[in-house]
Hints:
Helix content: 55-70%
Number of domains: 1
Number of strands: 3
Strand content: under 5%
Mean pLDDT: 88
Shape: globular
Number of helices: 14
Amino acid sequence: MFERLFGDRIFATVVTILVVGGLAMFTSASLGLLARAGETPWHIAITQVCLGLIPGVVAVIALRFVPPHWIEKSVLPFYIFSILLTMLVFIPHLGYHTNGATRWIQIGPLTVQPAEFLKISVILMLSSYLAHAKKKIRDMRHGLLPFALIVGIPSLLLIAQPNTSTTLVMGATAVALYFLVGAPWRDFAIILVTAVAGLALLVAIRPYLLNRINTYIHPSHHALSSGYQIQQSLIAIGSGQLLGRGYGQSVQKFNYLPEPNGDSIFAVYGEEFGFIGTVILIALFIAFITRGFMIAAEASSVFGSLSATGLSLLITISAFLNIGAMLGVLPLTGLPLPFMSQGGTALLAALISVGIIINIAANRPKKGK
């Protein structure tokens, strides 16, 4: 019964643990805002539930029962809609600007981040195209050029916001799919050179990127400025020791960690649940992508296989980039921790991705047939 309803028992169980545990962790981390003047944690919590969790669960259930061919037919309209929605952030008085970036649309008291939907639409669009053109992708006219068009236009919009971290996650996932279907090494070399040159140009014209790299290399040199977040994160995680202080008992979330319910939520988690807890969380994300890949391998169509692979990668890459940044092994990216960090749009997008993967799992060919 469970298998029939949710498509894949193990995958659905892992997602349920991540979502329920993420909501509990978000609640604990948000309590740290009570000690900060001007913060409104209850408004943030309500937004997380009403904009992210509730419509996300509805989306998972709806997508589970949608005929698979409906999803593929909706890919192009969704891709165009996501591009147009993302362009709205550049309209004065509609786009919401904060921390040097314009990534949100202001709708009354709510803000929506279109990039979360854009990256999903790019992966689905690329999956749909590659599913039909995989036998011809060694020809640049049917391979590299369409790839550059599908991924390039959204990437330029994201870079203009700027939203470099989302561009990198989306781009890395797209490249993985492209080579999964047999793209030639020639294309890999062209993409690599283009990516390195583009990143070097961005570092040259956007000082904050170079600053993040310098902070990553020498975090102790900027302990009270750009390195403050990583220093406080390491203190929080180290304070957790083996078993953690206990749920809700984090000290660093009060007036120390920047954005304790946002980018820094893993540090709060590490302080409250310790080394054992962080290992369990990492194991859950590994289980998530492993099961996602297994669903992809058994999918009934090439489009389904590529989509499940790409969406699993999107979520897991984001998770490990966030975790790596909080541990100081990767530069800070500003990426949220999926299913946990503040961001109703991010949670909704993650659950939409889960719904599509569950649909693919539920429509796998029956074993023995």
